[in-house]
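pinging the channel bc i need a second pair of eyes. not urgent but kinda urgent?? the chain im working w is below, pasted from the shared doc
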Amino acid sequence: MAIIAISKYPEMRSTNIADLRNRLTRYLKEVRAGEEIVVCDRQRPIARIVPFTVDDADDAALVASGLMRKGSGVLPPSFWKARRAPVTRQAAAAAVRADRDEH
């Protein structure tokens, strides 16, 4: 008896999580070449890796609706070196506990 698997995504490759971990570089090369990869966990699709594209139409719609403003200029290098205020482990844990208690 032959078992035929019919994929919901016949034009896409699929892989399981362990194989993706072991061969990530190979899969990323395929994605760069335009392929889409479906990632499965116990034979159930959980994610899809697709080539990144810049879609100006989405940006234009967000700008037109007033939800986004396009940046102008370049951030100075000092922006990336700005130091943040130190937060102690105890203060961070207290903030997480307080947030959990609110919900």
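so Residues 1-6 have pLDDT under 50 and may be disordered. and Strands lie at 13-16, 37-41, 44-49. — does that match what u expected or am i reading it wrong
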